[in-house]
């Protein structure tokens, strides 16, 4: 059993959150966030008070830095609570998809606060190296530091437990922050122990290490929390779920051009193209597409729009030509797949119209795509002189 399920995590959830299993409900989700924020404030205030007292008593700048790091975590928990509250506001005229991205902004604010604390103590620790003061080792303060490490381990697991349960980037960031605190507190406890055996200003050097770890942790959190705001690739599990659920409808033979817009946790809008038989009644197709949109949207808690692409499934010329084209495209490793393939025209003047999907890991420039299309056209012309290619270059916006 993992720590998040042990040592009061489940007990706290069952005690303070009604209908805790319904984590997709916005009200339940906000209650989870409020619980995590309150627990964080209480724990970090206690740790701040204990460590500040120990830092003053032992004259240790490293312990004092660690204390104020916990104090910043208190502010972080408060920001998390405010973020959850604001992000749950309903949609309005200016924000038709709601305010869910505020949660990402609150996580970003937490990250910058962590960096600020670290930078401040880089300066303080640097001064301590050149102006050393004797650190007083006592067994009780040392034991308190060790206990604080175990408390932070639990906090990391608790925030991770809640963050994964409600898919909260803010709480996942807080979990990583608490884990980095475990490292810094361990280093601080080591410096307190070493001060007993040496006159070297270990405290200042350890303080620099602690401060550097705090800055690095903040930088890492900034990077992770800013990605959703910049438009990161969607979650692979969600991508697979959307595709598999749509393909479960019998008339849909393929899907492509999936694009997912993230407007905050539990607020995703997706659009996708679904391939359907061209010889089927359009009204019947529309009925299936409408049903798929509604059922998949409800099942995955998203807003889904499906564009239907009719494909010819019984024309031998189209089927055979497509098979040859796929063989030609095997020579072009950057091409992942094709879609929207059709033949337009008659006699000796025909156009092959299709889209190619480029591997998203490749940084392809516009000139590269022009050259790629020319090479494909050249290969096709050698095999089918009567065909001209009209090629559209597509990107895979899901990266899988």
From TrEMBL:
Transmembrane portions of the chain: 31-50, 104-123, 135-155, 200-219
Domain Cation efflux protein cytoplasmic: 234-310
Residue span(s) of domain Cation efflux protein transmembrane: 38-230
Domain of life: Bacteria
InterPro entries for this protein: Cation_efflux, Cation_efflux_CTD, Cation_efflux_CTD_sf, Cation_efflux_TM, Cation_efflux_TMD_sf, CDF_Transporter
UniProt record similarity statement: Belongs to the cation diffusion facilitator (CDF) transporter (TC 2.A.4) family.
Protein known as: Ferrous-iron efflux pump FieF
